[in-house]
Amino acid sequence: MAAEGKTIDALSQFELIPVLGPVGRAVGFSQSNAHMLLAVGLISALMLFGIRKRALVPGRFQAAAEMFYEFIENLVTGQVGHEGRKYFPFVFALFMFVLFGNLIGLFPYAFTYTSHIAVTLGLAATVFLVTTIVALVLHGKKFFGYFFPEGAPLWLAPIIVPVEVVSYLSRPVSLSVRLFANMVAGHVLLKVFATFVVLLGGLGAIGPVASLLPLSVNVLLVGFEILVAFLQAYVFAILTCIYLHDAVHLH
Amino acid sequence: MIRLLHAAALALLLSQAPAALAQQVTAPHATGPVRTNAPLPGQQGESIAVQADSDRARAVEAANRSAAEHEHAAAAAADAGGMPQLDFGNPLMISQVVWLFVIFGLLVFLTYQFLLPPVAGVIENRRARIAADLDAARDARAEAEAAEAGRRDSTARARAEAQASVAAAAQAAQAESAARAEALAARLDKQIAEAETRIGSARDAAMGALREVATDATNALVQRLSGLSDGAAVSAAVDRELAARNLKTAG
């Protein structure tokens, strides 16, 4: 599938394929959704299995579970303040869902659901809706003052208000495109260099030697992609926290 | 270098995006049902090509009706060089997002209900335990400090007592020696006084004897020289002389 004939097919890895036989086909359940379920299962397993002993001195899994917990808790309370404590589980779920999606996708034959703009846009739209609803519930009509900063000269309103509205509305776009583009770029690169390995490997005597170069690049890339997986999940979470901060405090 | 590779991959993807969009535009044409089979006016010369096109369209339509419509649409998208992520004509795309909301909603629910409370409990428990241990340590230190202060106090008191008793002993010894010296002095004084009394009485006796001797000697001298014996006159003269010489007579 990687190299059909002499072409480099880097994009077919993103195709959606229905799973679970006729039932899955009937309800449109693709391998992407199966990986989402797997991620939810792994997250639940880590958190429930890790914490099951409730040890005072944590073991390996408990330390991991607590590390994620405290990391996101510090992120939320650091960005939003203590009022943001009640949104902490939402940010936690978001971070873990993106992180596990990114990481699971790095396994061979696995699918990266975060490489689909529809998925990232869905998550970003959720964040957008949640932050907007929080802002409306907390501040009511005052929320619309967010689009016109206090103290600015009134004659600037025709310029400032559209700019602020556009920047507010572009949040889900930038949030989703950033994650989507990073994941797609990384997986395309991995696929391209993996194809090079196969193509160069077929070059006869020097093939195995020549294919070592793209292979080593791919090894480096996998390390880099692990970093990107964490980084993008972190960026997604921290931007969510920043938007929540704006929603809670209005500037 | 890896960053450059990423940028290059992104550029590659962006250059493919218009193609993907173009494919997007033509996709309903290729995959949807084609109602007009008759060639349009002005396209007579190309009727064979159009006929071939509509044949293909009919074939695709038939394929759509088959159970494997999703794979075909995805494969068609991939063959056209577009990104499967931008193939919004694929019904799996919609169902993927619907399932995303279901699965992510499930994760958020699990996170709020089951995943985080135990971790919070464990961390809170540990925090309380550490605080309690710290308190205990602080108490123990205070206790040790109190004991140390008590020890220092009792040492100081013992030293003061020892000094007091030494001073008292010294004072008592001094007083005793002083008393003894006084007693000695008193005895000596008494002896001196007794001796003086004895000497006084001895002198008095001697003085009395002197008068007698002087009177006798004067009587004898007067008798021998003048032959007179006037005892009273001699006695008076001796007394006068003795008084004149300030010699006390034993009277």
Automatic annotation (TrEMBL), chain A:
Annotated protein name in UniProt: ATP synthase subunit a
Function per UniProt: Key component of the proton channel; it plays a direct role in the translocation of protons across the membrane.
Recorded family membership: Belongs to the ATPase A chain family.
Membrane topology summary: Multi-pass membrane protein
CDD domains: ATP-synt_Fo_a_6
UniProt keyword Cell membrane present: yes
Native organism taxonomy: Bacteria, Pseudomonadati, Pseudomonadota, Alphaproteobacteria, Acetobacterales
Keyword Amino-acid biosynthesis: no
GO molecular function: proton-transporting ATP synthase activity, rotational mechanism
Organism (species): Muricoccus pecuniae
Subcellular localization, as worded in the UniProt entry: Cell membrane; Membrane
Transmembrane segments: 34-51, 87-111, 117-138, 188-213, 219-244
Pfam families in UniProt: ATP-synt_A
GO cellular component terms listed in the entry, alphabetical order: plasma membrane; proton-transporting ATP synthase complex
Keywords: ATP synthesis, Cell membrane, CF(0), Hydrogen ion transport, Ion transport, Membrane, Transmembrane, Transmembrane helix, Transport
Record InterPro entries: ATP_synth_F0_asu, ATP_synth_F0_asu_AS, ATP_synth_F0_asu_bact/mt, F0_ATP_A_sf
Superkingdom in the source lineage: Bacteria
HAMAP family in the record: ATP_synth_a_bact
Main localisation: membrane
Automatic annotation (TrEMBL), chain B:
Coiled-coil region list: 178-205
Residues annotated as transmembrane: 93-116
Membrane topology: Single-pass membrane protein
Primary location: membrane
Cell compartments where the protein resides: Cell membrane; Endomembrane system
Record GO terms (molecular function): proton-transporting ATP synthase activity, rotational mechanism; proton-transporting ATPase activity, rotational mechanism
InterPro entries reported for this sequence: ATP_synth_b/b'su_bac/chlpt, ATP_synthase_B_chain
Function: Component of the F(0) channel, it forms part of the peripheral stalk, linking F(1) to F(0). The b'-subunit is a diverged and duplicated form of b found in plants and photosynthetic bacteria. F(1)F(0) ATP synthase produces ATP from ADP in the presence of a proton or sodium gradient. F-type ATPases consist of two structural domains, F(1) containing the extramembraneous catalytic core and F(0) containing the membrane proton channel, linked together by a central stalk and a peripheral stalk. During catalysis, ATP synthesis in the catalytic domain of F(1) is coupled via a rotary mechanism of the central stalk subunits to proton translocation.
Family of the protein in this entry: Belongs to the ATPase B chain family.
Entry protein name: ATP synthase subunit b
Lineage: Bacteria, Pseudomonadati, Pseudomonadota, Alphaproteobacteria, Acetobacterales
